[in-house]
Amino acid sequence: MIKNRTLQGYILNTLVIAVLLIVFSFVKEAFGKAGDFKLIIAPSIWQCCYLIILAASLNMTLGFLGQLSLGHCGFMAIGAYAAALISLAAERAGVFSDKSGPAFILVLVGCILIAGVLAAIVGLLVGIPALRLKGDYLAIITLGFGMIIVNIINNLPFAGQEGLALGSASASLYKNGLGFGTALKVTYIWVALAVTMISVAMMFMYVRSKYGRAIRAIRDDEIAASASGINTAFYKVFTFAYSAFFAGVAGALYACSNATLSTASFAFANGGILNSTFVVVMVVLGGMGSLTGSIVAAIIMFIVNYQIKNGVWVKLLPLWLQNIFAFPMLVYAVILIIVIMFRPKGIFGIYELSLRNFFSDMKRQRQNRLAQKQESKEALNNE
Amino acid sequence: MSTFLQTLFVGLRLGSIYALVALGYTMVYGIIRLINFAHGDFIMVGGYTMIFTIPVMISLGLPGWVSVLLAILVCALVGMSTELIAYRPVRKKGTSMTALITAIAVSLLLENLAQAIPQIGPNPKVASKIFAAGGVRIADVTLDWTTMLTIFISIVVMVVLYQFTQKTKIGRAMRCVSEDKSASILMGINVNRTIVTTFAIGSGLAAIAALMYIAQYPKVYTTMGSMLGLKAFVAAVLGGIGIIPGAMLGGFVIGLVESFTTSYVSSSMADAFVFLILIIVLIIKPAGILGKNMGEKV
């Protein structure tokens, strides 16, 4: 047997992912070409993928670094617009045609990478001044930066309100750029899955590395961390930029799965599924400081959002409840308040779900609970 | 020249509305160190209260603005219950981060709850005229009564509030709690009651701001408070949060920046400029214009 526990974990995870992918391909075959898979499941998977990356990347700053950033969707907007514009330019230059062939895949990968890098650069520029502040001030200043980014994009002559959001250019993203229709979403579903897996793996590795330990030290006590020789400014800015990178990647996937881009969808708070507040809800629900928690929460929130809007069972509910469900943000707000009040650490807390340690963790938890019960009983007896 | 004057008046008027809202932010932040994101939505609550009560007042033969008294009452109630139901339990248990997230959640809840109520709905409502039209002409520019009244009321409110915090017993208790909570318990101050009072006063100010806002822009919608509230918070931070004259100064600065950007640069960049000013000030002087830098204790 392999003794190295980290290696054990990697091998186990790879095996499980491979098995899941094989099962997935069988499921895909079983659905055949038409029907539910193409219309519902494939778009849902795309949406889940970018939500997962987005939630996990915000968790890096919110959960592990302990800094509330309310402008995360600004970075996503940068990624989305960068990817869309580059793909349009590539199409105009004749690099690819009708969205197939190796050239298109190369452009796609390039778009995703450049989107991430651009977002990271902006993250760096924002982070250097913003991270000098703490807590509430940081929240408000990131909120401001998020708005400024969206405002600037809106006023760019080639991307703004007359550029991509309205008019012919939005249709051209769908027709010529990298906006995927339902059929292409099925064809390129492996891109979404692969990008999500690589991104999440990269974030995991970051959190487990020396950098991750440093930022957790900063979260727990910044002054103590800097007293033990951690360059807090460097680690904060670096983590901010790193998380902005993945927000940009998520933005690129968003551009792929949406036919139109509009800056309104990246604003601080709007009725849609995508805004900085919604991302905060996902992270808090999953647990600040647990990447697996963010993944689970992103999927849960996606399903909640989808069911509220499209579920058949909604029609069976009383009318006043249906009226409430017409405003999904209301439901999220209630979820957020309930979670914060009754379980402030979220579903997972800082626990990371791990396949290798799953059973031993369960066992330890049961033992802990038993020990706690015993203790409280003894305390009662003593009284 | 006339454009300049016009812009100046618009800026002062906007600024005094921001200042009124910023006063509420600054009082609450000073006392519990929490950005009350829901404060902007208290304006919305006040706005809708007036929308529904102005016709009643007019039918009773009273002037329309009397309904602001009712709005102050409703806002104060909403503010106090927000503190009691949402903020206090979270403050006892969690960190400042969870409290901040709760504030965002309460703001979302109020906005969307208002939309879900069928009498309110997502469509904007138009308010009837509150103050009489007309005004004074200065160098080709009309300075109307509403503008003058807005600026005048906000200055009066600020002076009264400042005297209140300096002279009265409750005001002194507020300053004491914001300085040191545990010491004020030792001095026999009921901290929880003081915090609730602060929320009531701050929310009441939001109702007055709502009156001023509606008098100028007679349209009420559920998200009217979110951007207004954010800019007012920016104003509070700009002037130095927790300081009452600072909120006033910050409000006027933000209002002037916004109106001058709108008329001389670009109307769609006005919000970006407001936040740019905030960022610059925070980087140069993190405590705000009138704030004092305090050292950090380990």
Can you tell me about this structure?
The complex is a heterodimer of chains A (383) and B (298). Chain A contains 17 helices and no strands. With 383 residues, chain A is mainly α. Chain A has three domains: 1-31; 36-352, ABC transporter involved in vitamin B12 uptake, BtuC, CATH 1.10.3470; 357-383. In chain A, helix 2 (36-64) crosses helix 14, helix 3 (72-92) packs across helix 12 and helix 13 crosses helix 14 (291-310). Chain A is globular, with a radius of gyration of 22 Å. Chain B has 298 residues and is mainly α. Chain B has a domain at 20-225. Chain B has helices at residues 2-32, 39-59, 67-93, 96-116, 145-167, 169-179, 181-186, 191-216, 224-239, 244-264, 270-284, and strands spanning 125-126, 135-138, 141-144, 219-220. Chain B has a two-stranded antiparallel ribbon. In chain B, strands 2-3 form a two-stranded antiparallel sheet. In chain B, helix 10 (244-264) packs across helix 11 (270-284). The mean pLDDT of chain B is 84. The chains are: A mainly alpha (383), B mainly alpha (298). Chains A and B meet through helix 5, helix 13 and helix 16 of A and helix 3, helix 4, helix 9 and helix 11 of B.
